[in-house]
Amino acid sequence: MTAPAARRSLPILREGTSAYLKVDPDGFRAYVRDNKQRALTPRLMSAREAVERFVADGDYLAYECNYLMRGPNELVHEIIRQEKKQLWAAGKFTYVDVALLVDAGCVSRADCGFFLSSPPIDRALREGRLEVFEYSNVIMTTRLQAGAMGIPFLPVRSFGGTDGFDHSGAKLITDPYTGDPITIVPALNPDVAIIHVHQADVYGNARVFGTGISDVESALASRKVIISAEEIIETDDIRAKPGATSIPYYAVDAVVHSPHGSYPGTCPGYYGSDPEVVFEIFRAIMTDQVQAYLDKWVRPFATFAEMLNERVGAAKLEAMTAREVAKDGYSA
Asked: Is the dihedral of CA 284, 285, 291, 297 positive or negative?
């Protein structure tokens, strides 16, 4: 029997210079062990309670998808309403969300897969209120995948040799199998993920229909998970079709019943977007009028439902539902 080989360290050929969320798979594992509820205990609560309990100042925030497509917009509004501070956002596959949260004073750091550059972002960077660290959409998703797998990094065959590499937490090493250079990216275990789903039961078993990005990875990689759901369904329905469950209850800390919770965006299969208000949020971002948008759509209302009732109305919501023609594949 031969003696075990001595531990060797892989030489780092090159590395990015930006900060990244601490990689701590063992710490994440311990958190899940000690804090996640495995019993079938109801987790249904209001958006206000969910954000109060599970979003803390300074948290790293991931969200799925974005403000215009199955976004957790009721929860985003509630984060702004509660004036959460110093959040670090995973800005991937998104447009207006980061600017909205930055100008609201909630986000001070952002990992950039892709989001829309705009006057509020530019001003915050100039004034030192925002730091941005560069990745790509696929790299951010890979980082969440590593976090969900409980490993400290994953190798990727992209991103090395780019300017973004220099402004990220990626590293270039020698592949111990082939001897070729390979880029590795740090695992991401967000403090909190907010995810809007089509259906969930009161325990947090959640269904996402149609296309998505990294809903499952975000849920399994995050310490705290808030689900907002268009429909709350019976657990017997979940059990009848277990293959339709996307996110299991034991990953979830809070469930919020949120009909039309992606307004003014679309929730595919359920309702289309409100184009007029989608254009309004784009205009607000690009003309530096975010505060006026918040004063109209967020701050005057105690709840998202109150905003929908007073600003939108049942007739428009019904028309948005009638316009949604993508039905196949959006039910169990």
From this structure: positive
Amino acid present at 174: T
Confidence of residue 2 (pLDDT cuts 50, 70, 90): very low
Walk me through the domains of the chain, giving residue ranges and CATH numbers.
22-152+187-323 (3.40.1080.10)
Nearest CA to 166 out of 8, 49, 17 is that of 17
Residue with tokens 């989608």: 278
Long-range contacts from 302-305, C-beta under 8 angstroms, 24+ separation: 303/46, 303/47, 303/48, 304/47, 304/73, 304/74, 304/77, 304/78, 304/258, 304/261, 305/259
**Residues 139/143/148/153 CA torsion (nearest 10 deg):** 120
| Distance from C-alpha of 231 to C-alpha of 269, rounded to nearest angstrom | 13
**DSSP of 238-259:** HHH-GGG-SB-GGG-SEEEE-T
Query: Left if phi > 0, otherwise alpha if psi is -120 to 50, otherwise beta: which for 210?
Result: left
DSSP 331: -
CA–CA distance, 126 with 118 (Å, rounded to integer) = 12
Mean pLDDT over 10-22 rounds to: 93
Residue whose pair of structure tokens reads 């325990």 in the numeric block: 203
What are the angstrom distances between the C-alpha of 265 and each of 127, 188, 226, 249?
31, 27, 19, 26
- Is residue 5 very low, low, confident or very high in pLDDT (cuts 50, 70, 90)? low
- Rounded to 5 degrees, what angle do the CA atoms 115, 293, 320 make? 80
pLDDT 10s digits, 282-330: 999 999 999 999 999 999 999 999 999 999 999 999 999 999 987 788 8
Residue 71 pLDDT > 80: yes
Whether the predicted pLDDT of 95 surpasses 70: yes
